What we know:
Elements lengths: L3 H8 L2 H6 E9 L2 E8 L12 E6 L3 E8 L2 E8 L1 E5 L5 E2 L14 H11 L2
Parallel strand pairs: 2-5
Antiparallel strand pairs: 1-2, 3-6, 4-5, 6-7
Amino acid sequence: xxxxxxxxxxxxxxxxxxxxxxxxxxxxxxxxxxxxxxxxxxxxxxxxxxxxxxxxxxxxxxxxxxxxxxxxxxxxxxxxxxxxxxxxxxxxxxxxxxxxxxxxxxxxxxxxxxxxx
Length: 117
């Protein structure tokens, strides 16, 4: 039997389900808004450091594949971390947005492919 996360992985970019919590959703005027916050799990690349969560960066909004005739907007809040020894603010190096666009990399690649036909 498939669980909620398994179903969401079929509909949304997999990295969102793995690294972010869905905190809210709403539909207005045929636009589906999905709200995500990065999980408070310390990134593997920083596992040797002593970090604590320092809140979130400014929310970004990106377009994703339409679902059931609705435009999909992903509202994503990425987490900031503070190194307790140095005081440096760190964050994961996310490449969520296709270069020069406001859409996910997967959606941008899809649009490129259908435009070349």
